Amino acid sequence: MTRAEAIRRHGRLVEEIRKHDYAYYVEAKPLISDAEYDALYDELRDLERRYPDLVTPDSPTQRVGGAPLPGFSPVAHRVPMQSLDNTYSVAELFAFVDRVERTLAKETPSYVVEPKIDGVSISVVYRKGAFVQGATRGDGQTGDDITANLRTIRALPLRLALRHPPELLEVRGEAYLPTKVFEDLNKDREARGEPLFANPRNATAGSLKQLDPRIVAHRPLSVIFYGTGDPKGIGCESQDRWLRFLAEAGLPSPSRYWLCRDKEDLAGAIAALDDFRKGLPYATDGAVVKVNEWRFYGLLGSTAKAPRWAIAYKYGAERARTRLLRVVFQVGRTGVVTPVAEMEPVFLAGSTVSRATLHNFDEVRRKGIKIGDWIEIEKAGEVIPAVVEVDRSARTGEEKEIVPPEQCPACATPLRWDGIFLRCPNPQCPGRLKGLIRHFARRNAMDIEGLGESLVNQLVDGGLIRDVADLYHLTLTNLLPLERMGEKSAANLLSAIEGSKSRGLARLLFGLGILHVGETAAEALASHFGTIDRLWNASPEEVERIPSVGPIIGQSVTDYFRDAFNRQRVDRLRQAGVSMKAKRLPGERRILQGKTFVITGTLSKPREEIAERIRESGGKITESVSRKTSFLVLGSEPGSKLKQARRLGVPEISENELERLLEGGTNDDKTS
Ligand SMILES: NC(=O)c1ccc[n+]([C@@H]2O[C@H](COP(=O)([O-])OP(=O)(O)OC[C@H]3O[C@@H](n4cnc5c(N)ncnc54)[C@H](O)[C@@H]3O)[C@@H](O)[C@H]2O)c1
Ligand SMILES: [Zn+2]
């Protein structure tokens, strides 16, 4: 990889990871699985190891993901709340031990192994033994005040069980949704056609985000503690003693932990915990290994993001064994027919599952899967598990081949092979249409909230929608007779549909589900062509010349627009008022190009949202004020950044002034 390529790749990764951090931490609705996220993150970390000068203070490797939420009061953490470095390999865990022992040279530490609870990080303060405040981690420096929400949690003692409670005690741990509650919550949501939570952590985050504590009270959350904010001055010297103290104080803490002296102990503890955690009432995704003696913490220090005296060892995806009862065939938006396994229901990683994807027929052949087989399924963070293995030794001879269908299960059109994929060629196939609408409504496409699977099925099966453009002609009268559709949700849906008209060309191109056109290609196409008409009339050569597009996408895009049916679809969307213009026109100089912003204080919208808009307009965001800062965006209750800005003479602007700037107004004279 050349340096220029590394820089480009770095930029892409940072942008991509930021987007996922926002979806995960702020909206509690991840777009990809944790394993996929971790892969992106590792690539970024490796790239930065090779090119250390690419590391900026706001790189995702340098900061705790997350941001304070609107609607909650901010709480500044006395001591930053950090994340943990993590690994999936024992070799890397041992390398951590070597690093610690090298740093400590003559001293010999011991280690504590605790379950890594898959919840949401919280900090709780007791004054003279009484619960006074609770906060989330937020961006690590500032979290949200969730005192009222935490009060509804029964497991959280409002008074400490200590005869002589300290003046001030900060304890840190996790809020979590017990596995059973999580499972019921998702069942409920499924029945109502609402999107499922990907894992208990997202469900917990979603619950804590509720501004109304009464809603929180209906989701029986629980808490467990393992840490403290400031280890100084609380008269405790080690992690194992601290865990005992927490229990004495009446605070819920891990029911088991392991004290270890060396690598051998650690490997044993990790294996023992893997077994033990299956019986816990909460989901765990790993083991946290901590240096036991607190006096070493100062010496070991921390990176911008995580302490150097602890590491998380993550267990691989959970697997379960069950029987494959039958195979059904699902048509996706591009017409690809996917074999889906229906299995004997089995409990896996926090929920009961009865369907798993078999990906494609090539996979089926490669793994030799047959109906009636005992299979191993795996869930790596996502809701839909995959079949990973067949237990051939359990065969009876009664198993049946999985035969690819000859006709489309949705429209009976004869199917065609396209490489390893089986496709329905009928552009008007209702199965394809359902897939397309679900894709069109996705958050990173046209973002239409409330358009869940069961609703899409009703709309298509009931003949209310014959093409995506029909979405824009739905009325209250159409919607109200549908199942589980109240007046309020119908109105919300209509306004979400209305709002989707202005997403811009890039997201529309992605939403149209053109073969091979992912988000990145859609963005490249939109910013190169600017309008759909120019793209529509482009030749394949012209399209494929765009960086990050290439011949396959070039051909696919031109084929798409050559098809009369697709042209008609686009025309109907245009008539319905859907924007066909790129948010940024080709060659247009972006309004904040070359300007650097620092944000401080509380604003009317989440900080990340404002930062995103600045970035969209070409501006840069940095964490700290320097002479190079063009503007300090000033919210209420600003932090120390304001002082620094005044000292350096950096101009301050309010949120309204920023708004004007974004719209291309004045204020330009202030930058030099
Ligand atoms: N799917 C996505 O789009 C997406 C996006 C962002 C993050 N993620 C996931 O989240 C992870 C990063 O999240 P993170 O920064 O919270 O890190 P993390 O969950 O890997 O580890 C840090 C957290 O572990 C918690 N924890 C639980 N038990 C603990 C114990 N016994 N001792 C100490 N801490 C304990 C603490 O809250 C701490 O903040 C990623 O590795 C990824 O898997 C996924
Ligand atoms: Zn079909």
Q: Which structural category fits the helices and strands?
A: alpha+beta
Question: How many separate domains make up the residues?
Answer: 5
Count of extended strands: 22
Attached small molecules: nicotinamide-adenine-dinucleotide, zinc ion
The averaged pLDDT comes out at 88
Q: Output the strand order for the largest sheet.
A: 2-11-10-3-9
Instruction: Please work out how many helical segments DSSP would assign.
Output: 24
CATH level 1 class label of the largest domain: Alpha Beta
Assembly state of the chains shown: single chain
CATH superfamily (homologous) name of the largest domain: DNA ligase/mRNA capping enzyme
How many angstroms does the end-to-end distance come to? 36 Å
CATH architecture of the largest domain: 2-Layer Sandwich
For the CA atoms, what is the radius of gyration?
Answer: 27 Å
Mind describing the biggest β-sheet?
5 strands, mixed
Fraction of residues in H or I helices: 25-40%
Strand content: 15-25%
Pfam families: BRCT, DNA_ligase_aden, HHH_2, HHH_5, OB_DNA_ligase
GO molecular function: DNA ligase (NAD+) activity; metal ion binding
Cofactor: Mg(2+); Mn(2+)
Family: Belongs to the NAD-dependent DNA ligase family. LigA subfamily.
